[in-house]
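Q: What does the assembled structure look like for these inputs?
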Amino acid sequence: MNWPVVALALYLTLGVELGSRAALTIAGSFVPSLLIALVALIAAFAPMTAALWIALLAGALTDLTTPVATTSGPTIVLGPSAVGFVVGTYAVLTIRGLFLRRHATSLVVLAVIAATCAGLTAAGLLAIRQITDSGFTLAGPQVISRLGSALYTAIPAALLALLWRRAMPLLGLNDPFARRWDRSG
Amino acid sequence: MNPARKSILSGTNLLALATGLCALCAVAPAPFTAWVQDAAYPVQIVTAPVRWLVGQVARAGGAGTDASATGDAPLAREVALLTARNLRLAAENDELRAQVRALQRGAELNPQAEAMRIVVPVIAADSPVASGLIMLRTGRVRAADGSEGNVPLGSVAISDAVNIVGRIVRAAGPVADVQPIGQAGTRELRATIFPLEDRADPNADPNADPDADPSAVQLGVVLTPAGQGRLRGSVYALQLADGQFEPAIRTGMTVRLTDPSWPRAAQMLVVGTVEAVSRADNGRPIVTVKPGFDPRSLQQVTILLTPDSTGTLEAPLVTPGAQR
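A:
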């Protein structure tokens, strides 16, 4: 794993996501997550512990840059996306063996699964927060918007997947199938 | 190292610990996680350059700069360019005329309005599904005593000279966040519709007395966020002349701020225009108001720096410092 390049990729992806979020919003509440797509693609090939650390970091960065709309105003909540990204990445790590990871469609499906798990986990944690914190009331429904956003994430994930084979060597990720073929060749 | 200790500090255990702490932060009540608000700013400042760059590109793409070819002949191209320029100038002219009218109208209704205005660029707007906050590059504000500080919380951001964008809800160092009106989570705001003000509007009431004082008829409305950036509220009569019936409310009518909880300089600025009118069970009209700005296309906003933004400023503001 080439950590400096991974950090740079996370930084740029986060900036692109934050800068384009308003322009990419559709139906009033559906926003794609470029960062979870990147994390999911990394998780498809990276070692487990490294992938989970990257997910935690990316989720924490998302939390710190994306205030949650509450009835008392926007509030920074550290944790929902961080834990959600870890859960989503763990789901990808668990099922990645079932997918033909060299195929772009597989990567898109893995990204959508990761985004769905991350979104539902974040929505669940925010729902718990509403119970534990009497002054914290979400200003809008979470589950539907996060599920829609997860599906919408398929589009940036597809774009990333098309570039992925070129990006993998830069990120220091190994394609196990390619190595096997190289030996046979 | 002791093997037992090594296993406790292994990467997997640390990861589980960090994830658990994050989960705890997510569900812990606000008093225990207040430090997170401060921790967020360095991250937001570090990501601001890329965010701003992408925001500019997104806005430029959204504007749809049409440069379609109009033929190979240089003359035809020249004609097309001149036509486009003429149309653009005409549009700008109309826009400026409308702004002047709106400014004159606002100043007429609120002659005490005075505030220092600084124009600041928009870094990026967050999605309405998240917080909807609009991040600004404000720089530092210098007070009369020479001290520098953040933009006062509660200052009002406006666009196109008259349209209220929202209020500053967070400010740290060179950046500040505006919470737009109409965004979920914002407080209700009081506004007033002046039905006679829009007599020049082709949709306005043709039977209205052209010599009547526009401020003679006022309809109050308490607006709350209604989703999609809109505001909605029930209308009630504030002021009617003797023997006058409550006038009909039509789409396109201008809604102006008359909320005492907002700074004085923001009074009578434009909240938006009436987009839809419906009736409540008790027969009262309910209006849906569309704010006069689009967060996705905002390039810059004007901040009204007023000492009464927070009521805590000790020195009068004289000049913005080190903005660029």
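Chain B touches chain A through 58 residues (CB under 8 Å).
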